[in-house]
């Protein structure tokens, strides 16, 4: 490779995607998906506040 170009080659630019037209069914599905993600995020936040689930796992006996 005996080229004078140094450094990284710049990646080619991607053409901007055109905005899609959605019908009512697609809009309803997108809205439903957003609501499910929001509910899941709230459940995760609630679970983190409570801490670990009950039980301390396996207990070791003092015997050797």
Instruction: Tell how many strands the DSSP assignment holds.
Output: 0
**Range of strand content:** under 5%
Radius of gyration: 27 Å
Q: Which structural class fits the helix and strand makeup?
A: mainly alpha
Per DSSP, the total helix count is 1
Q: What share of residues is helical? A: 40-55%
Broad shape: flat
- Low-confidence sequence ranges: none
Question: Can you describe this structure?
Answer:
There is one protein chain. With 64 residues, the chain is an all-alpha fold. 42% of the residues lie in helices and 0% in strands. The protein contains 1 helix and no strands. It has one helix at residues 24-50. The chain is flat. The chain starts with 23 loop residues before the first helix and ends in a 14-residue tail after the last helix. The model has no long low-confidence stretch (mean pLDDT 79). Residues 15-45 have a biased composition (Basic and acidic residues). This is Translation machinery associated TMA7.
């Amino acid at each position: 490779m005996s080229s004078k170009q140094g450094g990284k080659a710049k990646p080619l630019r991607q053409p901007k995607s055109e905005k899609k037209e959605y019908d009512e069914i697609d809009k309803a599905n997108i809205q439903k998906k957003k609501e499910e993600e929001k509910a899941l995020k709230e459940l995760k936040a609630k679970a983190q506040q409570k801490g670990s689930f009950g039980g301390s796992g396996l207990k070791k006996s003092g015997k050797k």
